[in-house]
Structure formats: structure tokens, C-alpha cells
Amino acid sequence: MSTATNFPRARLVKPLLIGIAGGTGSGKSTITRRLAAALAETPVAFVALDSYYLDLGDMPMDERNRRNFDHPDAFDLPLLLQHLEALAAGQSIESPVYDFRRHARASTTETVRPSDVVVVDGILALHDPRIRALFGLKVFVDADADLRLARRIRRDIVERGRTVEDVLEQYETTVRPMHERFVEPTRAHADLIVPRGGFNDIAVDVLLAFVERCLRPVPA
Asked: Which of 45, 101, 131, 187 could form a disulfide with 140, with the two C-beta atoms 3.0–4.6 Å apart?
């Protein structure tokens, strides 16, 4: 476990926005779930970058399948920025719901209410400087590339109806090159780097300790 030299000084701030980035299958969701479990007594809102993929519903399906979903241009970052600014101001948002089998947004949305802690996770959560500036804590989750690929294969087959061949082709043509070009460089912006994925107990303890200090009332 390692921390960047610019680890922020804990301070009382509500809401505390936390950005959790890292490669596909690195363990971002595991970190998020562990945060939720540990902060059971604290109001926490979760925003997934994957929910903000652009709606491709007006394209033929074969064209949708060929899109590069690992490039920053695949996401509606202006909408995400608008929603995070609203949550930071204590307002509820209607987050998109994305259908990964159709590469399109569902007709429904998910209400996300303002909370003491707002966690944003996604491969490019730390890419956009405007969004990055909202985070009181920036986390980069790292894991071995072979492990990340194995996790992605399992996830895409079970949850998104893909074949092994489809997943491997996508990994070779877009996922790996986009990781090297866009995702990996964002580790330089992280306050906390978590190696070995979401089961790094020491790193998770450091993260939780920081969050708890930020939310602790200042003695009168």
C-alpha cells in the first residue's frame, strides 16, 4: 500500500466527495462496497461513472458494438459534472440508468439524494480536471493486468451477455490501449494508491480513517 505525497489534510467537510479510479477489474467496486459497509451509520451516496455512458440508442446495433467505450469521449462528462455539483450543493439528482446489453440508456432514472459522503467510481473518475477538483479525496486502485482481464471476462459474460471472444477482442483493440493512454496517467492525481485491488486491508483502513476524520465534528 502506498500513498501519494499530496495526501490531503483531513478536515470537516460535508459532503465529502471521493473519486475512485483504476483499470477495469482492478477492484474499484470492491472498495466501494467495503466503504458502504464500514460507513453504515453515515449517509453515503454512490455515483457510477458507467451510468454516464452516452446514449447510443439511435445507432444500429453493429455500430454500437464497435464503439470505443474506454475513451473519455464515450462518457457524458458535462452531465456528470452538473450532477456532482448539485450533490455538493445538497440537491438530489436523477442519475441515468445504462443498459450495457443495448448500449443505451433506460427510460428510467435513479434518484441519488445528497449525503455526507458521495463516492464516484469508474475507470476515468480522475480524468476530467473539473470533476477532479470536486473530490476531497482521490483514490487510484491498482491490480495486475492479468487479474483485471480475468475479472472483466467473468463480469462481461455474466452481466453483459458477451462471449469470451468478444471480450478479448475489445480488450486488445480498445481496453488495453485506452488504459495506457488515459487511465494509468490518472494515478498521478491520486492522494491514495491502492495496490492489489480491493482486498488490501491496510489501504482500506487508511481510506476509512481519513473519511472518518473528515466527518468528525470539531470540538466546540
From this structure: 187
pLDDT at 159 over 90: no
- Better-scored residue on pLDDT, 145 or 186: 186
DSSP 3-state assignment of 150? Answer: helix
What is the rounded distance in angstroms from the CA atom of residue 107 to the CA atom of residue 177? 32
Alpha-carbon distance 121 to 42, whole Å? 18
Specify the amino acid at residue 22.
G
Helix (H) or strand (E) holding 116: none
The phi, psi pair for 45, rounded to 5°, reads -110, 145
Q: How far apart are CA 75 and CA 155, in angstroms?
A: 20
Average pLDDT over residues 11-15: 65
d(CA 202, CA 75): 32
Which amino acid, residue 203? A
Residues 6+ apart with CB under 8 A from 177: none
pLDDT for the residue 108: 95
